[in-house]
């Protein structure tokens, strides 16, 4: 069991540190709202992953693999949400073009909103569910209980995710003084907006 946990931890770590929408979301949230808000967004991301892990261990995500319609409905919903985040970021950057202050209230997320954004971004991504359904069983030793072992693996992945995203928050927080300058923040909003739209389009067109 220890060998299986170590092997899964190594693979999951590689998946965790791969830059993607989660990293972009946490960086933007930290810069606009501070370290606490960034950590809450990170907690939302991990909560979404754990939700998929539990449903996957219970066999519910098998529906996504068996039903193309169910997968496509969730995929389109997730793509629309990412596109909305991207358009929202670009709109905020456009509105800030004539603003000279350090921040505007509309760019700040509450703690609950930050957590919700991280959570929804993951829950509406069917690829996360398929990832858990396809990867976890490969590491379960023969004779080990599927649900219990999958939960152990999910806890390992969650711990790695929290650690990595906390490091991302720390790095973004340390650079916040520079990144919070109006011109730099405007560029950051534009970059993240384009990235979210790109991720959304990729998810929408992925077959």
TrEMBL record:
Subcellular location(s) of the protein: Cell membrane
Membrane-crossing segments per the record: 44-66, 73-91, 151-175
Its membrane topology: Multi-pass membrane protein
InterPro entries from the UniProt entry: LeuE-type
Keywords for this protein: Cell membrane, Membrane, Transmembrane, Transmembrane helix
Pfam short name (any one): LysE
Residue ranges of coiled coil: none
Protein's UniProt name: LysE family translocator
Organism listed in the record: Actinomadura graeca
